């Protein structure tokens, strides 16, 4: 049985490396973003990317959709967007004298929600149903979304004018929140040399939706020790600590992470082990993914804002206190 798992992990690791290499032929650098997108796909969740314009967020998502041979649609969120612009609507067909469904761009395997925080609450609620229930309601009928269905949303951290902060309930639906930084000078030089000459770089299909489902099943078989499971739960539960006197970081947290954080941290730790070619999870796998999984699930207090602390800073303090198994 163990040999069988090791063979599956080795095969999955090889397939993922081919996928990464193919994506890297078009998207230079930004490996944490690529790994985060692939991790979200394998974990069956959605990903929120935060970064300034021009960091290849849209290019990366489009490239991933081509590499895994999946349907792709891009929705540019604006303040005047309507729910029907996303999910679709009923239109009257004069020839037959009846209403028919015209499906919206959400009916795709990979949906890029560009600048998601620019849309009002009604649009967010329509997208929330699609993200959580994997279905949309048009008229009186409910329509299932394709499998896999993956929403990758972007938001600009430096612009607040004309934006609507995402509600906590919607943020919690994102399995990961990735923070994207500028490329290094060497990477930017490579971008200049490659993209300055030819912006249409072809990529090969290395995965398919069926292979993606097989990779998910392989990830589920990865072994995780009871002590690491307890370590995961302890980290998440620590964000709900209310004893501000004996626990030094408690005063910086207004609201902690939900049990959904434990579930996603558990899944992502397994996938991180698969990325490394291992059939078992180690504590470093948890540490590698914990910031991306939890940074958007913690609401900071006034004390944290006054000391200019971020959620990543608070997570670091929690990790220093909790014993590693």
Describe this structure in words.
- By secondary structure, the protein is an alpha/beta fold.
- The chain folds into two domains: 2-196, P-loop containing nucleotide triphosphate hydrolases (Rossmann fold, 3-Layer(aba) Sandwich), CATH 3.40.50.300; 223-321, Orthogonal Bundle (Helicase, Ruva Protein, domain 3).
- The protein has helices at residues 2-24, 31-43, 57-67, 83-87, 121-133, 168-171, 185-195, 209-220, 226-238, 259-275, 283-294, 302-306, 311-321; strands spanning 46-50, 72-76, 88-93, 98-103, 110-114, 135-138, 141-144, 150-155, 174-179, 253-255, 299-300.
- The strands form four sheets. Strands 2-5-8-1-9 form a five-stranded parallel β-sheet. Strands 3-4 form a two-stranded antiparallel sheet. Strands 6-7 form a two-stranded antiparallel sheet.
- Helix 10 (259-275) packs across helix 11.
- The chain is globular.
Short overview:
The protein is α/β, with parallel strands linked by helices and 325 residues long. It has two domains: 195 residues, 3-Layer(aba) Sandwich (Rossmann fold); 99 residues, Magnesium chelatase subunit I, C-Terminal domain (Helicase, Ruva Protein, domain 3, Orthogonal Bundle). It contains 13 helices and eleven strands.
List the helices and strands and how they pair.
Layout: H1 2-24, H2 31-43, E1 46-50, H3 57-67, E2 72-76, H4 83-87, E3 88-93, E4 98-103, E5 110-114, H5 121-133, E6 135-138, E7 141-144, E8 150-155, H6 168-171, E9 174-179, H7 185-195, H8 209-220, H9 226-238, E10 253-255, H10 259-275, H11 283-294, E11 299-300, H12 302-306, H13 311-321
Parallel strand pairs: 1-8, 1-9, 2-5, 5-8
Antiparallel strand pairs: 3-4, 6-7, 10-11
């Amino acid at each position: 049985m163990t040999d069988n798992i090791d063979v599956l992990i080795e095969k999955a690791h090889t397939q993922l490396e081919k996928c990464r290499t193919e994506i890297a032929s078009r998207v230079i650098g930004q490996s944490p973003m690529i790994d985060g997108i692939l991790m979200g796909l394998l974990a069956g969740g959605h990903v929120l990317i935060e970064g300034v314009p021009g960091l290849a967020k849209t290019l990366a998502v489009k490239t991933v959709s081509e590499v895994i041979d999946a349907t792709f649609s891009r929705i540019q969120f604006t303040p005047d967007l309507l729910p029907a612009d996303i999910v679709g609507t009923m239109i009257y067909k004069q020839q037959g004298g009846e209403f028919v469904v015209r499906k919206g761009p959400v009916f795709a395997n990979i949906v890029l929600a560009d600048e998601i925080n620019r849309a009002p609450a009604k649009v967010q609620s329509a997208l929330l149903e699609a993200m959580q229930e994997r279905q949309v309601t048009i008229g009186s009928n409910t329509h299932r979304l394709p499998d896999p269905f993956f929403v990758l949303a972007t938001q600009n951290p430096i612009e607040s004018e004309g934006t609507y902060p995402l509600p906590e309930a919607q943020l919690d639906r994102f399995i990961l929140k990735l923070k994207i930084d500028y490329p290094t000078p060497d990477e930017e030089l490579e971008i200049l040399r490659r993209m300055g000459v030819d912006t249409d770089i072809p990529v090969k299909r290395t995965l398919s939706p069926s292979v993606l489902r097989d990779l998910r099943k392989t990830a589920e078989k990865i072994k995780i020790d009871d002590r690491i499971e307890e370590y995961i739960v302890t980290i998440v539960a620590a964000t709900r600590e209310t004893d501000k006197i004996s626990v030094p970081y408690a005063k910086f947290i207004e609201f902690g992470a939900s049990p959904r954080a434990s579930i996603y941290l558990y899944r992502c730790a397994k996938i991180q082990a698969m990325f490394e070619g291992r059939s078992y999870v180690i504590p470093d796998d948890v540490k590698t993914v914990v910031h991306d999984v939890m940074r958007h699930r913690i609401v900071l207090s006034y004390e944290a804002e006054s000391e200019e602390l971020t959620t990543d800073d608070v997570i670091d303090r929690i990790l220093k206190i909790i014993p590693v198994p």
